[in-house]
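User: Hey, my collaborator sent me this sequence without any context and asked if I could get a structure. I don't really work with proteins. Can you help?
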Amino acid sequence: MKFQHEENEGHEENEMWTRSKSSLLTMKYRKLRIAWSVVCGIFFLLLIALWVRSYWWWDYATIAVRTGRTALSVQSVQGQLFAFHAAEGWSSSERGSIDLKKWNFPESEAKSVLGFSIEQSPIQTIVTVPYWFALAFAGCAAAIPWLPWHFSLRTLLIAMTLATIALGLGLAVYAAR
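Assistant: No problem. I've predicted the 3D structure and written it out in structure-token form, which is a compact way to encode the shape of the chain:
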């Protein structure tokens, strides 16, 4: 026959093992979370510097792919990031900067919603994203590893419902313009 004291000792040892095991798992990934947050923080600061620079300089980087037939380009100008895909007419990759005092940047004809836009033609596609969105994305990416991931199925369903409603409203606003 076991005494009450002996049973409690076994339970306490098991509870201590469970707690130490969970703390080992959180410690195992702690350095990875710190490294991820540092990289995202550096990216965040570089984006801020590029955002400020975009009001004086037009920076671009273009990569020719498929033996010079198409090109992918990323451009930064006037507080906007442009991702550009051209179907033909590019022979080489290039990068550089243009002083905006010497160059008039053409106004976009695409309808913009909160700074986002998409322009399509038979030979090119241009996607415009505002810097504030890129900064918010980098900040959220830095914070995600530190969030506790203990949520229920109910919470997941509510979050997915809200995301679907937001996406539907965004598409409705875009279609109305």
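In plain terms: Residues 57 and 99 are 5 Å apart (CA to CA). You can pass these tokens on to your collaborator as they are.
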